[in-house]
Amino acid sequence: MNAIETENLTKRFIPVRTFGDLIARRWRRVPRTAVDDVSIRIGEGELFGLLGENGAGKTTLIRMLSTTLLPTSGRASVLGFDVVAEAQAVRRRIGIVSGDERSFYWRLSGRQNLEYFAALYHLPRAAIRPRVNELLAALDITGIADRRFDSYSTGMKQRFAIARGMLVDPKVLFLDEPTRALDPIAASELRHHLAQDIIGRMGYTALLATHTLSEAEEICDRVAIMRAGHLVHTGTMDELRADMGLTTVLELAVSRFATPIRERLVALAGVKDVVVHAGENGRVRLDIGLEPPPRPITGIMRTVIDGGAEVHSSLVREPTLDDVYRRAHA
Amino acid sequence: MPSWAASAGASLQVVWATFLRDMITAASYRVGLLLSVGGSLVTIFVVFFLGRAFGGVAAPDLERYGGSYFGFAVVGVALSNLMALGLTGMSSRIREGQVMGTLELMLLSPNRLWLLFVSSSLWAHAQALVTVVLFVVAGVALGADFGDANVGMTLLSLALAVLAFNAFGLFSAAVVIVIKQGNPVALLMSAASVLLAGVFYPVSVLPDWLRIAGQLLPLTQALEVVRRAALGGEGIDTLWPRLLALVVLTSVLMPVGLWCSGKAVEIARTDGSLSQY
User: Fold this and answer.
1) Contact (CB<8Å) B110/A88
2) Is A24's pLDDT higher than 90?
3) Which of A114, B160, B166, B182 is at a distance of 20 to 30 A from A50, taking alpha carbons?
4) Is residue B276 in a domain?
5) CA atoms within 13 A on the CB side of A276
6) A245-329 is classed in which CATH architecture?
């Protein structure tokens, strides 16, 4: 069974009528489509990344899946429970972590906040304190737990948000840009923590919405790219690269380059294309696109050297999610 | 443990945790807490001096309430405070939740809507109860006479009054969920109640048509029954029609208020405004 499943899920918002609309007698309100016909399947234990620019529809999709927003059409289920008809069953099995610093009681301590939310989410009374202690330790925030929430740094607050998302030991965790407000070091630490300790060790299914490409690339098993409410591409990194025709590139900095070398390189098996970039001091950079699967590059090097050129440096560059993302948005 | 007992236990746990949350929060604003209690006590001096100014004037309309304007007004102000709290207790917590971003998380919890609303306003009710008790104690110290009070009847009618006020509070909460800022229900009800329910004067001085309209307000019924029980010492034998009116009002308003608040959450879940403020 898939942990998360959506079928033609769509959300349209009716814009609020402004005073200007009333004065101009604009009665008709054109709905704005935030999520359009989205169908995805996310398996149990998978860490799935949802990538897109601001306003692409990531948060709207997460809010529908977490039952705080009603879909306009289509259907969605979490762990087999319909998000509309069986919202309560879904709520008992999910955790939510957002990058929003609000949503805590700032006059309470971090521990008091967690204990309150644990009670709110029906954790048995005897289990609340041990569970809170366990999560504080797991997220390395025991030492600050009794300080007032408004005294924490953004990174600390975010750790508490993750702890809260995990209070009821959810089967599915929704992470909506959890590192949005963090500096690069804190974001990297948190990512590591999420991937290794939280999701890796505890086996949650997680849906991570982010616009940080490196974040998705670093920790996600599969990613989907959203654009203007549509799901543009879905797959593992390799699948996305193949789908979009992105290849591994061998970059060679050479001198004494002659045109016949390029022709010989293009004729080699496994070479997709060769682009020559002019450089300084008579040097050029050759970007040699390699067909998958990867093969030894000995033949390429021999062709270049036998052609009379001299190789100064080489670099094998795998296509990044950045390339995928740019291609998807092109 | 039977499932109903487990469910009741979980609900009590939610109520207690929410009460603790609000108590700790309120206690962290020490000056504000003291000022809110102290400020409301100032009102008692206003009615005390009003009573001294007009106390000597014969007012036959006050006879059934013990004859003293001061006692009459003390009950009036105390109950109108309770009504204001009933009207705004839940909606102000909801508004707070919208601004702080906690409302969505609360509604995501596996709790019934009414439980969340009631538990959220519990601390405010406890605070109001303390204020009312202080109010009455100060009133007694300043000469209000509750010597003939039928205590049981007074407490019963107070409890029914609080329920009726909270039924209106559910409407008010529903409105805040949908329109966010501003609370026309609370504003209208407060204004109408001060004018028509007889907080500062007996309703018998109103023109007939206004008096009839005033009978539809819970505060009118509550004031009548509490004053007659607390100041005149009357019991169930004479007050039952008023109590019945309160019960009927509450029984009609409560389910309608619950339906409205459920509908409001559904509207907010449709237009995506649950977390907006």
Assistant:
1) yes
2) no
3) A114
4) no
5) 17
6) 2-Layer Sandwich (3.30)
